[in-house]
Amino acid sequence: MQKIDLEGKVVLVTGAAGFIGSNLVIELFKTIDDIKVVGIDNMNNYYDVSIKEWRLKEIEKLGGQWTFIKGDISDKNVIDKIFSDYKPSVVVNLAAQAGVRYSITNPDAYIQSNLIGFYNILEACRHSYDNGETGVEHLVYASSSSVYGTNKKVPYSTDDKVDNPVSLYAATKKSNELMAHAYCKLYNIPATGLRFFTVYGPAGRPDMAYFGFTNKLLKGETIQIFNYGNCKRDFTYVDDIVEGVKRVMQGAPERKNGEDGLPLPPYAVYNIGNQNPENLLDFVDILQQELINAGVLPADYDFESHKKLVPMQPGDVPITYADTEPLERDYGFKPSTPLREGLRKFAQWYKEFYKV
User: Fold this and answer.
1) What mean pLDDT value characterizes the chain?
2) What domains sit in the chain, N to C, each tagged with a CATH number?
3) Locate the NAD-dependent epimerase/dehydratase domain: which residues (predicted)?
């Protein structure tokens, strides 16, 4: 593995106003000296833009060497200009159209952002070496646990075959891994893909179950628990994800040649998950307790009358479960935040943000 010192470096974070992106930028400014971060985000209205604006304000409070560009990674000119103006050493591609269910109704958004956008990033990385420049030392990009599709074997290992996506979102993420592999092989770009498992926490995405449940319960609406509650999810707290990303940024797959004298692709893929799948019903139970503790919901709230067990949704899978041993072996890191602690922080943030 090639060690990369981030001190004094320029880092490009795409999707910088997003849930993981903004938390990553904050962590980099808090822990790495003299780092310069360029962020890009299209600030689309897939969910409440005021949450994205709140996240950007949190970054600005730190007063680091921060440049924010409102733009879309699917616009090749925008990406090329960022690379020529700022010459990033490390690129973290988190910009993507997220969500399994939305990919059924709005497929265009996924092709634009997840395929064309990622292609633009790969091309810019490739040309960063032109004219003998040092160029990009490491490209880190978001994949997803959804690439495992209906994989029966658990825990999910990065050695498993992942050729059976059950949503267009999953198919685009698998495509990202394939595209990255080709570029690593052809142009010797060190790249690492990270398969994230159900990320949650304060200022998260409102389309995620825990956030949506909270909104509905507060309005007195009924929440639907899919697969009659027989779903298990490897919930991973956002700080754990960010710590994992930060460590991976600092260790790139090594460039080396094979027996034929040609470069072996400096390519790797890891799972980042909690390695501890929680039953959806238990998850909802802890969430409701923490919402009461935070004062979001009244102590006598009648949960039973507000929950309904329903069948599985198209594109969904019954279980997600990460084998994180390789991440632990190579980077000495394993997510460890207990679900209750993470949901407590979410409930406290929710109370404050929405002034409940």
Assistant:
1) 95
2) 2-198+236-274+320-336 (3.40.50.720)
3) 11-259
